[in-house]
Amino acid sequence: MTLTEPEPRVDTFEGSISLQDVTMEFTSRDRNSLLAVDTTSLTIPSGQFVSVLGPSGCGKSTLLRMIAGLMAPTSGSVSIGGEPVRGPSRKVGIAFQTPSLLEWYTVAENIALPARMGRHPADKRSVERRVEELLATVKLASLGGKYPSELSGGMRQRVAIARSLITDPAVILMDEPFGALDAITREHMHDELLSIWRESGATVLFITHDIAEAVYLSDRIVVMSPRPGRIVADIVNELPRPRNSSTRALPEFTRLASELRVHINH
């Protein structure tokens, strides 16, 4: 499997991600240090779908949070579109494993929330129009007035994905967003996500510990070692697109999954 990067899917620099020699070290209450991520570099072109794969505790989520601007690295640099990351940005959308919807807000209000926060909230009418578009995109067009408690797990996760898209981000960060779903719903959500990604043209960084999920979704798969997290493999996924249920039956799918398993267990 070649290790050269594929061509970016969109002709823009805005969604490119760069980590240069990033290290993240935490200090515990007893003042012992914990090295979560060690001297890691990664470059992702705009429009690419990249999965980060590794065992629990390897620093995958820490990497995502640094890119999101939710924490600063102990050393090294993080940039998006050539600009240093100094905090959360509207050009970055985030979806976590738990949808974290506000139960007292309707579906539409939850989706609109990021666009109405901060120093410069978006125009109300433009936000409402965008919410309608996103509800249609995630196939919840008739449910904008419902509350989260009235939705299934898969529907709630669709709302969270729509919320991550409300500011038209150049980068979408996803931290095991389908981990709590059953297998059938998860596979359905894979196809929904790929459709949304194709329409948005955004760069996606997808955190997972599920090998088959990474193979099905990604243009490229980065494997991290157990703590301290380091990149031990960076593999281009040459499975053809668009992907569908028959993709999982391809010999190439099985071969790539086996290759990734070797890197993880090495």
From TrEMBL:
Keyword list (alphabetical) reads: ATP-binding, Nucleotide-binding, Transport
ABC transporter domain boundaries: 17-251
Tell me yes or no: is Nucleotide-binding among this UniProt entry's keywords: yes
Claim: ATP-binding is one of the keywords in the record: yes
InterPro entries, per the entry: AAA+_ATPase (IPR003593), ABC_transporter-like_ATP-bd (IPR003439), ABC_transporter-like_CS (IPR017871), ABC_transporter_ATP-bind (IPR050166), P-loop_NTPase (IPR027417)
Q: Which GO terms describe its molecular function?
A: ATP binding; ATP hydrolysis activity
| CDD domains (alphabetical) | ABC_NrtD_SsuB_transporters
Protein name, entry field: NitT/TauT family transport system ATP-binding protein
Originating organism: Herbiconiux flava
Q: What is the lineage of its organism?
A: Bacteria, Bacillati, Actinomycetota, Actinomycetes, Micrococcales
